[in-house]
Amino acid sequence: MDHALERPRPQPATSTLDPAEAESSGDEDGGLDWTKLPKIGTMRPVIPKRGEKDFEPAPGGGSGLQVHVLDRARAAMFDALKADRAISSKSASYGIWFPQISRVHVTVARGIHFSVMGHSAARPISIDNGSTKLQKRLELLPEEALYLIERGALFCWKDIQADLTGLDDVEGAPMSVQQAFAEIIGKEDLTLEKYQVFAYLRRLGYVVARTDPPSPSYPVPPPRLGNEAPPSFCRRLLSIFSLFTTSVLRFWRGSFSWWKPLRISRLIHHDKSYGKVLKSLRVIPAGHSVAPHSSCATPVSPSSPYKIFYNMYKPSTNFRKTTPPQPDFQIVIINARTAVVPSLYELTELRGAPPVVQSSPAAVALPVHTSIFKYIFSWLLPSSTPQSISSQPRPHPFAALKAGKKNIVIAAVDSGNISFFRFSQGAFEEWPTL
Length: 434
Known about the structure:
Strand content: 15-25%
Helix content: 25-40%
Strand order of the largest sheet: 3-4-2-1-5
Shape: extended
Distance between the termini: 72 Å
Radius of gyration: 33 Å
Number of helices: 10
Low-confidence stretches: 1-6, 19-30, 358-370
Structural class: alpha+beta
């Protein structure tokens, strides 16, 4: 065994495993072997494969061979990280950063990024006779421009409000990634945590857009239309009749008693089904339609970090940036170091914004009555009225409760580590327990 003062003697490790098996088993447990990276200047760099560890960390420090191998791998990693990235000028886009309006004007757009990023905005420009006119141009939000600059797909110059007489032929150098972060972070409510979530989702293939339009020219999804048809004349008359009968029965039965929540009448007993009985026994208001009680007038502070910031679309969604559809998810971004767990009032306010999920099945299929006379006949003589049997299969309650009616996604960023939490609105009051 060699010690720390012994000269390193590299010895090939003997393995009893098959080469293919050893390579597959080391893909998950080992780290990257940076020494196998090609030297700087190679035309086609190859990503190193993971391999097995030659030794385990020793409590008192490694031997001379271990220190030599680790130093060589560390030096190879630094050499690979400090290499300059080569970008083809034929696939790069060009833009100008305007700090006054916090936008990047794209002068040359190349690549597939602009199919889901950027929007058209009308800006005044000067013409030869001294007047101005409006002209549409392609602009990027701060997070979109920073994402393209970081990827190396956009060369961006900063607009300088200075007299450059005699320097028209001097183009200057584009902004570096460090300068772009310093210039763009903090503009248009963009924080470092929000950009990290945006860049992470874009790398995964999701389409991310702002929920609240930062400018009037920014496209927003159309309002969601309800699927319910306008009530017919019979249904209007039925609602008036139901309201009248409810008032008469309330006057006849008297006030509600907490000691007798279930009223059993000898004359009218046809409505004593399991659903009616359980509904009568429910003395505490249930459902998300009942607002939570609060002693203060504004339970949610205006400075609460739980605000919806991004709309997210799946990669399979047919997305058009000029007319975006309804989002698949809506995301709230917080800093895990400074924000606390959301309260019930903050969650209630968040759930009021997203639309109801259309894929959730209905809880109870109510019978459809064609006329008011048939409804009155079935109400007076329930035993002689045949029950309609639905041909649709009964939905699974647990799957619908798990999916929820309204979903909200909270992205908690902790020093660059992003965790996503989904909060759904379950409709427990709509599903029968028996």
